[in-house]
Each structure stands twice: as structure tokens, then as C-alpha cells.
Amino acid sequence: MRPFLTATWRYLAMxxxxxxxxxxxxxxxxxxxxxxxxxxxxxxxVGFRFLDTRVKGFAVPFxxxxxxxxxxxxxxxxxxxxxxxxxxxVRELVPRWAIATVARVVYNEPYLALPMRHTVRMEGAERxxxxxVEYAWKFGGRxxxxxxxxxxxxxxxxxxSQEEFITEHYWGYTPQRDGGCAEYRVEHPRWAVxxxxxxxxxxxxxxxxxxxxxxFLRGTxxxxxxxxxxxxxVHPGARLALGEHTASPPTVTSAA
Length: 256
Prior knowledge:
By secondary structure, the chain is mainly β. It has a single domain, classed as Acetoacetate decarboxylase-like (Beta Barrel). The chain is 12% helix and 53% strand. The chain contains 5 helices and 16 strands. Strands 1-3-5-6-11-12-14 form a 7-stranded mixed beta barrel. The longest helix has 11 residues, at 97-107.
């Protein structure tokens, strides 16, 4: 099936925090279940560059290149071939109001449009030079940000590692207004990751994501790394109903 959306996702800064499963369970989309790594549940602050965006093969003027920052957690769904590991989103930030409005109104995606900016200094990082990425957004009258400094060269994630658990997801799940759930598939090659020497996260978590996350998204994250990214293809969505798929409109979102 032809992808609904294609793009390149680059320099994904991932700050991963252990979160009490009881905090996440009320947000788990119907038909899926919370996914864990070694019995621990995680939520990730992810910032990245969304580049060369095309919808059904067409570039939309002024909406090709932008930043995205999202707070996501990890779920799984048992498909006919076995478990599908996926992500669900608490909130997704973009600087384009049209993207946020369409995603929120038509597809029930938790998008919010805010002023955003980035700093990406990754020249030579593939060869081991130190790198830096920072993604920032303006909310409540001030700037918030997440950042990471890389070291060494990017390496493939090890099977069974936390890096693999966080980065290797090829499905997204979105709660619908009627209580159902939409599923979409994202194709991309396996990503390599840089380890990081330093991270920073400055955010009014309670105001933006709710009081339930304030106790967890603070201090040093449980892990952090920067994924190199790649081209991606987002396929049209399908609706989950009683363990079966029924047709639904495609969704415009990121499973990063």
C-alpha cells in the first residue's frame, strides 16, 4: 500500500524516564496494553527534525521542514503475526498550526502548535566528533527545552537493550473520541544511536503534560541517547475493533 506520508526524521534526542505503570495505564489506547522493558515502564521526551515532508507524494508549501517534540510511551498490540510494538503519545508539539489543527480535529492526535527553535551541531559526529542537539518551544510565556551532547560514533542498538526497546517501534496507536483506537504503520531502517555525556531538560511539566508526570519527568533521565534517524514512510491508518481491523482515515503523526 502506498504511504500516506513520507519524510526524513533526523537527530532524535531521546530522554527516557521511568514512570509508574499506574500513571500510564489510564492513557493506554483501547485494544493495546502497556509495554515494558525488564518490567519497567518508560515515557520519553523526544525532539527531532522533520524534513522533506510529503503527503501522498506532494510537498506542502511552508510545511516541509520543521521541528517536533513529543512525550510518548510504549504499548503493544497482538496482531495476526504476533506482538506489534508501538507508541502512544501524551502530547506532540509542532510549530505549524495547520498541522496541529488537522491532526487534532480530524484524527484526534494530541497536537499543539507552539513557537519552536532548534540547535543542531552534528558536523563530524558520524566520525566521533562531539555533537550537540537542542529543541526548544515557547509555552506559558517562556522557553522550554531538551538537549543532549553526544560522544563517539553512532552504533547499532544491541538486541534486547534499552536502546532497541526505545527506538525500534514501527506502529502508532491513537485513542479515538468514541473510545476506539486507530493503528498506523511506520517504515524505517534500524537506527544507530550516539551515547551522550550530558542532557538537559527544562520544562514546566505539570502545566504542559499534567500533574501526573511532574514527579517523574525531572532530574537525570534513566537513559538518554541521540538516534541518527532516516527516511520514514507512514502508512494509512486502520481502526482496531474487537481484535479486528476496519477501515479508517489515515493519521498524520510521528511514531518517533
